[in-house]
Amino acid sequence: MNIFRFAGDMTHLASVLVLLLKIHTIKSCAGISLKTQELYALVFATRYLDLFTDYISLYNTLMKLIFLGSSFSIVWYIRYHKIVRRSYDKDQDTFRHYFLVLPCLLLALLINEKFTFREVMWTFSLYLEAVAILPQLVLLQRTRNIDNLTGQYVFLLGAYRALYILNWIYRYFTEPHYVHWITWISGLVQTLLYADFFYYYFQSWKNNVKLELPA
Amino acid sequence: AAIVSQHDEL
User: Fold this and answer.
1) Is pLDDT of B4 > 60?
2) Which residue from A50, A122, A178 is facing B5, i.e. has the nearest CB?
3) In chain B, which residues have their Cβ closer than 8 Å to the Cβ of A175?
4) What's chain A's average pLDDT?
5) Number of domains in chain A
6) A18, A40, A64, A136: least CB-packed within 10 angstroms?
7) Range(s) of the domain holding residue A155
8) Is A193 helix (H, G, I), strand (E, B) or coil?
9) Do A67 and B10 touch (CB under 8 A)?
10) Helix, strand or coil for residue A83?
């Protein structure tokens, strides 16, 4: 495993921890999109079907369990926790799941490396992960006050994707036959979705003002 | 082999 991949995984882990910190400690999920969190839970559930059949490494297994466990517990907190759920911006978080899930499922059935259940599900999870941030970005744009933790959460998620691209470039030049068009293109699309957010994030950081996205 | 190597990422 190269440094970019490891840094990417750690950034991803940090994003989840920041979100759990906000939810668990502050007992608030204000500004967090439940739709995006549900999509991530679906992404991990469909991607990690190999959890009990293919052993890669202890690291790999542990990280899969952490991402599965954290994504489902975040969804549980926002939906059912009696204090946390009160802060959920339900009226603002109106993105429809099936607008994203159905096209991704169709695309995975049409474009995949191998037409097997597991491979189609894996491909579906890649496509869905690429667009799963959209409800969150829409909510950020609608929310007047983006608190620090929410801003950092989205920034860390974007950084994780950017580091994965560096990881692929590194692997392409260091490993023989390392070519994965589906992973790369969906990963690139996913990272590009953060471009706008990154721009405003750095602007607010540079000028030392509160993060706010233009309507 | 291509598919297996792809699945070592998270």
Assistant:
1) no
2) A178
3) 5
4) 95
5) 1
6) A64
7) 3-204
8) coil
9) yes
10) coil
